[in-house]
Design a protein that fits this description.
This protein is of the alpha+beta class. 24% of the residues lie in helices and 36% in strands. The chain has one domain (7-189): Protein Transport Mog1p, Chain A (3-Layer(aba) Sandwich). The protein is built from 4 helices and 9 strands; from the N terminus they run αβββαββαββββα. The termini are far apart.
Length: 190
């Protein structure tokens, strides 16, 4: 069974993330070449620490070309909250301020009652760029109506620059709050 997550939503997030300002972080991005459409396609992985009680869902990761974490023992379709990490090459080194409005517009187009809140930046130590954070709420959506998003920049061993977006997406406010400690543990260690 294939995971169900709005492909449009993932593409919109990937587009927004693809051009965010990069910095000089070195947490590490790994490039993996996977077969796709009769050729090889790059898949970029962030070096995150998976928190206790969570596991990477390999099928969803492969299907969406995005790292997906789920609570241990819970299937993708049944998970009330999911953590996913989108890593995109930042070729043009554009600032995040150019692209955040696109992500906000996407949320507003999917749910007229969307509430979007800019959260305080989360510092990262050792001279790494801070996470810029947003919170999205759209109670009218049956799936993924609540989300926390943290965006930063990173580089690989060759000095290529990337945008790393770490999201906690949940079906309810209660599920978001229950998964938030695991999500924050990932951010604190990245």
């Amino acid at each position: 069974m294939r995971p169900t997550l709005s492909l449009y939503r993932l593409l919109a997030i990937a587009f927004c993330c693809a051009a965010i300002l990069s910095g000089t972080a070195s947490a590490g991005i790994e490039k993996i070449m996977n077969p796709c459409d009769n050729k090889l396609c790059a898949f970029f992985r962030a070096s995150i620490t998976i928190p206790p009680g969570w596991t990477e869902d390999e099928e969803s990761t492969r299907y969406f070309n995005t790292q997906f974490l789920l609570p241990v023992g819970v299937a993708f379709e049944k998970a009330p909250a999911k953590i996913y990490v989108v890593v995109r090459y930042n070729r043009n080194r554009q600032p995040i301020s150019d692209f955040i409005p696109v992500g906000i517009a996407d949320w507003k187009s999917r749910a007229k009652n969307s509430k979007i809140t800019k959260l305080d930046d989360l510092p990262r130590g050792e001279g790494k760029p801070a996470f810029e954070r947003l919170q999205f709420e759209a109670p009218s959506l049956k799936e993924q109506g609540y989300e926390l998003q943290a965006v930063t920049s990173d580089d690989d061993k060759d000095g290529n620059q990337f945008i790393v977006s770490i999201m906690l997406s949940a079906d309810s406010r209660a599920a978001l709050k229950a998964a938030e400690p695991a999500y924050l543990a990932i951010l604190e260690k990245y």
